């Protein structure tokens, strides 16, 4: 498949990141994901924070290239990926926070919406860039056996329950990409998805 045309500014930014990145042990595909995160954040600390679970990239690329559904937690993540989704595999793209309106008693709107999305697509790629409550609810469903996501991107940002939700994800057996610690966010999560879409598109025969 032909290489996706990307903006000259993006390509120049990638070249600058390549120059500054330094020694690392990432595979070329892993590096492509981390580099896109750094491009979105201008924060080289992510080279030490992004963790790839065993088989995560292979699972992600297969799922995306087959047009598998993507569930994101918030609208900002959706806005960050919808353009590339439409240019590539046109995967179904669901946004939990909008599906969860009105919220259920005892749950945040995003958490409730994610659970509804999982009822329809238990094997979706799930992308969390904002809501640790949604990530914790997802881990509950994984432990119960009612959700089997193709990949989980765990990148909520902040202080309350953020690190706990990522630690919980790390204990699950599903393919996953995590951002350790308090950092993350919608831009980070979207960057990861976009990098995976580019990789999946360019590996096609």
Please tell me about this protein's structure:
With 205 residues, this protein is of the alpha/beta class. It has one domain (8-202): Cobalamin biosynthesis CobH/CbiC, precorrin-8X methylmutase (Rossmann fold), CATH 3.40.50. It contains 9 helices and 6 strands; from the N terminus they run H-H-E-H-E-H-E-H-H-E-H-E-H-E-H. Strands 1-6-5-4-2-3 form a 6-stranded mixed β-sheet, with helices on both faces. The longest helix is centred in the last third of the chain and has 17 residues, at 186-202.
**Mean of residue pLDDT values:** 96
Mind telling me the CATH superfamily name? Cobalamin biosynthesis CobH/CbiC, precorrin-8X methylmutase
Could you say how many structural domains there are in total?
1
Give the overall silhouette: globular
What portion of residues is helical? 40-55%
The CATH class = Alpha Beta
Identify the strand order in the major beta sheet.
1-6-5-4-2-3
The total count of strands amounts to: 6
Order of helices and strands: HHEHEHEHHEHEHEH
CATH architectural type: 3-Layer(aba) Sandwich
Spatial separation of the terminal alpha carbons = 5 Å
Q: Please report which band the strand proportion falls in: under 5%, 5-15%, 15-25%, 25-35%, 35-45% or over 45%.
A: 5-15%
- Please, how many helices? 9
Question: What structural category arises from helix and sheet content?
Answer: alpha/beta
The Rg value, from CA coordinates, equals: 16 Å
Q: Can you tell me the CATH topology?
A: Rossmann fold
Largest pleated sheet: 6 strands, mixed
Low-confidence stretches: none
């Amino acid at each position: 498949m032909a290489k996706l045309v990307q903006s000259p500014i993006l390509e120049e930014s990638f070249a600058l990141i390549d120059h500054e990145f330094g020694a690392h042990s990432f595979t070329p595909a892993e590096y492509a994901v981390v580099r896109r995160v750094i491009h979105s954040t201008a924060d080289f600390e992510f080279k030490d924070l992004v963790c790839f679970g065993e088989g995560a990239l292979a699972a992600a690329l297969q799922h995306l290239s087959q047009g598998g559904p993507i569930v994101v937690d918030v609208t900002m993540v959706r806005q960050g990926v919808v353009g590339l989704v439409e240019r590539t595999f046109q995967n179904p793209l669901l946004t939990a926070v909008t599906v969860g309106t009105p919220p259920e008693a005892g749950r945040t709107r995003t958490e409730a919406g994610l659970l509804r999305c999982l009822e329809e697509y238990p094997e979706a790629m799930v992308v969390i860039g904002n809501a640790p409550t949604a990530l914790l609810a997802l881990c509950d469903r994984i432990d119960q056996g009612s959700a089997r996501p193709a990949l989980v991107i765990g990148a909520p940002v902040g202080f309350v329950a953020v690190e706990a939700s990522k630690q919980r994800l790390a204990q699950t057996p599903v393919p996953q990409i995590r951002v350790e610690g308090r950092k993350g966010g919608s831009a980070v999560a979207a960057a990861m998805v976009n990098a995976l879409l580019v990789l999946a598109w360019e590996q096609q025969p």
